[in-house]
């Protein structure tokens, strides 16, 4: 779920995640993530291992995204850079970009 403009909520069978993206300026965005689990899930004997596995899996994705995002940011500063098209499944990206453009 997207709570416009900068909050994402992920609903999973065993946990809920809340991510907020907080733009600080044109070049910096702070990302906060909170993961909530039930008391029953946290009480499972293998909970620490499962939580560590989930975190490590997500960190791999995040590291990949950060590298790509940094390269895109550098490229966007080029005088040759032109905005590209977004696909039909990316309307939330378009709305967020327009929102940030108006605010920053």
Protein described:
- This protein has 104 residues and is an alpha+beta fold.
- The chain is built from three helices and four strands; from the N terminus they run E-E-E-E-H-H-H.
- The chain has a four-stranded antiparallel beta sheet.
What is the average per-residue confidence, as pLDDT, rounded to a whole number? 86
- The structure class reads alpha+beta
SSE pattern, N- to C-terminal? EEEEHHH
Rg over alpha carbons: 17 Å
Overall geometry comes to elongated
Which oligomerization state do the chains in this entry correspond to? Answer: single chain
* Number of H/I helices: 3
Unreliable residue runs = none
User: Helical residue percent?
Assistant: 40-55%
Main sheet properties: 4 strands, antiparallel
Q: What portion of the residues fall into strands of 2 or more residues? A: 25-35%
Instruction: Describe the strand arrangement of the main beta sheet, using strand numbers.
Output: 1-2-3-4
Rounded to the nearest angstrom, the distance between the terminal CA atoms is 24 Å
How many strands? 4
């Amino acid at each position: 779920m997207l709570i416009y403009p900068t909050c994402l909520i992920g609903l999973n069978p065993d946990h809920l995640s809340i991510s907020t993206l907080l733009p600080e300026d044109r070049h910096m965005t702070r990302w906060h993530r909170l993961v909530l689990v039930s008391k029953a899930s946290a009480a499972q004997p293998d909970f620490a291992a499962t939580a560590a596995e989930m975190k490590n899996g997500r960190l791999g994705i995040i590291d990949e995204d950060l590298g790509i995002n940094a390269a895109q940011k550098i490229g966007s500063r080029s005088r040759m850079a032109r905005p590209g098209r977004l696909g039909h499944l990316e309307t939330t990206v378009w709305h967020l970009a327009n929102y940030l453009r108006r605010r920053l």
